[in-house]
Every structure is written in structure tokens, then in C-alpha cells.
Amino acid sequence: MPIKEKLKNLSQHPGVYQMLDKNQQVIYIGKAKNLKKRVSSYFSKQHSDGKTRALVANIKDFEVIVTATETQALLLENELIKQYKPRYNILLKDAKSYPYIYITNDKHPRVSFYRGQKNKDYQFFGPYPSAHVVRDSLAILKKIFKVRQCTNSVYRSRSRPCLEYQIGLCTAPCVGKISDENYAQDVAMMSLFLSGKGKETLDKVSDKMQQASIDLDFELAAHYRDQLIGLRTIQEQHSSQSMSDMDVVSIVEKEGVHAVEVLFVRSGKQIGQDCIFPKHAKGKPSKEVLSAFLPLYYLGKDTPKKLLLSEKLIDRTLIASALDTKIIDTPQKDKRHFLKIATLTAEENLKQHLISRFTKRSQLMQLQKTLNLSSLPNTMECFDISHTMGEATTASCVVFEKGLPKVSKYRQFNIKDITPGDDYAAMNQAVFRRYSRLLKEDKPLPDVVFIDGGLGQLNQA
User: Fold this and answer.
1) In what order do the strands lie in the sheet with 26-32?
2) How far apart are CA 6 and CA 235, in angstroms?
3) How do beta strands 391-401 and 269-276 pair?
4) 296/212 Cα distance (integer angstroms)
5) What is the CATH architecture of 3-91?
6) If exposure means fewest CB atoms within 10 Å of the residue's CB, which of 26, 256, 266, 335 is most exposed?
7) Edge-to-edge strands of the sheet including 306-309?
8) Better-scored residue on pLDDT, 77 or 184
9) Tens of pLDDT along 319-338?
């Protein structure tokens, strides 16, 4: 489908967009609060920045993943950039390296923002897609763990607590307001959390809170309680922190067409997607289509330990046994958002698919009218000739069925025994070889044949 047609009907939900080049390779990934506005902006205005113009010039298609919130879009953008490493995500930045969060090895370690060559003695976490993501993360860490973020010169010069301590964003290890042991525990918990071990962090903080209560150290217990509340809030907001590998499968139907969206979740992170439009499913209920789809899609593959489905299947037990996986159709709160994302993305992909199909049919109807055909041209073929200064003459035949390219039926002909540079003879030979073979094999001929060239090539064909 042309990009302009896709843009007209694009979702206005938050999400992530992936720009593709002519080879269907991902060349840029971005996030958007409103997908339609953000993606349209690439094609609706002139860009003063040369790098952006170069990106737009190479965009031949795009794909989107719809998310429930802008925060989820930000997290997914980060994960996909790490996975695909698109070249324009680097070129469109300010030529700096990706930013990291790091923890020093001082007596009272500090946590901060970092770019550049890494110090082997420090702990680094990342990379992150942009500086603002790092700063947002540091602000969250400051509220939960209260580990110092001041420079060493400021730390060494303190004789009394600073404003950060007064407003509850630092425990002031510089002036002994927290013991070295408890500060080290806070740093360890933060390191664990940044490593992606959210559940383990929650468990440890909960254990420490209970122990402090048993020891009647209620001030320390309250400190751990606040950490626990903060961590749980972050987990709900950044809900791509599910604790296992799974695929999330949602099916939607409209106008007799089904779309099955598969989200791939690994180590609690959404790393990719796949959308399939099952054939011969018209008039069948979604449950039946999904039951048939799952074995076809997964048998012979490494099926994840869990499949989260949008439908309750009658043969759930049989399919789970055959695929050696656990099927979940009533997800808990921490997994529901994945199902919502899968359903929203399935609806968006189905909408674009139906629009594309309608557009193709409209184009075929217009062609039928223009050429005064008795029926829609379901099969069309087009020939073109190419050579290098008269040498190595080649003819190409591309095939379209129902308005869509049928790449498996494309053919190429090496042209022989003609005068170098004679395009007319080359066209005559290519067309003769193509259709004499179809007739010999008793195969159907196309409804329309297009010849790339002028009247001379057309007469030869």
C-alpha cells in the first residue's frame, strides 16, 4: 500500500514506528504520543536537517506497534533500538555515544549520567536511547533509593546536609545521616533494580522491611516501606517488566477477515511482533481460527514456556500438550497490558490490510474500465529490457495477482543471438519464450500484459 494511503488511516494511539528501506530493513525507530501526527510529519513538510532528509529519502514503508501509554512506547523504543541498531537512530543523534547510568566505586558510591569511554572500575547500565530517558530514570532512582547524585567535590565539601536531604531525595552519607552498611544496601538494591531484576529487588526490600520491624527499627522499616511502594509503582507504570518469556497472541476479525497479532516477550521485554492474516477463514469464529493457527505457527519451532491468548479455546489442553507450553487466557494484572497492546496492534494492522485490499480492488476496477475488459484483471505481467552498453542484454517479467506482486512467479531471460542494443528483438524474444512455454505447459495466460517501452517494443510483443 502507498505510504500516503497508510497515513490517512493510521492510529492516533501512542506507539512505536519503524521506518523501512527498499529491502524492508529497519533504518529508524521512534516513539510517538500520537502515531498519525508523528509519522505524518516526516512526509508532510520540508526538513532543514540534511540527515533527516537523507532518512526520509530512504523510507519506502513503515510499520507501527500500538501501545497503551506513552511510557510503554518509550520503553519499547529503547528495546527495539538495542535489538535492530538502525543506522539512522545513530546518524540522527548529535554524533555522541549512547548514554549510560553508572555507579562509582567510592566509599559512598554515587549514581549519575555518563557518555564516553567506560571506566572499568564502575558499574554501567544501558545503553539508553536518549539523554532524557537517563535523566527520567535518575529522577525515579533518587525518589526510591535516595543514593547520592552529587559530584565528589560537592560531597567532600559538605559539613551539614544539603537541600536534597531536606526534601527526602538523599540520605546524606556525606555527614553520617545513614550508616555505611545501610547505604551500601541501598546501592546494592539499586544496582539489582537497574540490572532488570525487579522481582528479586522487591523480595529483598520486603524482607529487609520485615526484619527492621522485628528489630523495632521503625524508622528504617519506614524507609524500606517507601522504597517498596516506589518500586511497585514503577513496575505498574513501566509494565513491560513481566517476569518470563512468553508470546502474546490476539485475534481480531472484521468483514470476514481475521488478523492474528503475535507479540514476542523475552525476559519481560517486548522485543518484536508478527502479524498474520490466515487464509480460508472467512465465516469461521475467531476461536476456531486461533485453534487452527497455533499448531501451524508453532510446531517445529522453539515455543516459549507461556502463550497468552485473547480467546478461551475449547481444545486448549490438547494444544498446550502438543506445543509443550502453558496457555493463559485469563491473565493477571501484570500481563494484561501485553494483551491490550497485541489487540490494539492487531486492529491497526487489520484496518490497514482492509484499506489496502479495498484500494487494490478500486485500482483494478479503474483499469478494467480504462481497458474495457469484461472482468477484473486478476493476473497481469510486465516486461522490460536492460543491457550494459548493448552487452549482457536481459529481459525481466514481473507478475501481479489481484493487484499484488507475486515474486515467486517473477522470471528473468538472458537474451541471445540478437544485434547488441536491439531492444525490439530482445522484447520479441522474451515475450515469445514466456508465452510459448505457458501454452506448451497448458498454463493460463495473463489477463493483461504491459510492455515497458514505445510503439516499437509494443509492436514486437
Assistant:
1) 26-32, 15-20, 61-66
2) 34
3) unpaired
4) 54
5) 3-Layer(aba) Sandwich (3.40)
6) 256
7) 269-276, 257-266, 246-254, 306-309, 326-328
8) 184
9) 888 888 999 988 887 788 88
Amino acid at 453: G
The grid coordinates of residue 110 equal: 554515587
pTM exceeds cut of 0.70: no
C-alpha cell at 435: 508465452
Closest CA to 108 of 166, 155, 141, 154: 155
Burial of 315 (0-12, 13-18, 19+ CB in 10 A): middle
Fold adopted by 246-353: Nucleotidyltransferase; domain 5 (3.30.420)
Fill in the DSSP letter of residue 324.
Answer: T
Number of neighbours of residue 436 by Cβ within 10 angstroms: 10
Strand-pair category, 100-103 with 123-125? antiparallel
Q: Which residues, listed in sequence order, are joined to residue 327 by a DSSP beta bridge?
A: 307
Query: Could you tell me the residue ranges of all domains in the chain?
Result: 3-91, 100-237, 246-353, 379-460
Concatenate the DSSP letters of all residues of 215-249 into one string.
TT-HHHHHHHHHHHHHHHHHHHHTTT--SS-EEEE
Sign of CA pseudo-dihedral 163, 167, 171, 176: positive
Closest CA to 103 of 170, 165, 45, 148: 148
Q: Smallest Cα–Cα separation from 194: which of 140, 248, 148?
A: 140
Collapsing DSSP to helix, strand or coil, 106 comes out as coil
Q: What architecture does CATH give domain 379-460?
A: 2-Layer Sandwich (3.30)
Report the C-alpha gap between 124 and 111 in whole angstroms.
10
* Rounded CA separation 65/18 (Å): 8
Indicate whether 227 pLDDT > 50: yes
DSSP bridge pairs for 449: 381
- CA 411 to centroid of chain Cα atoms: 34
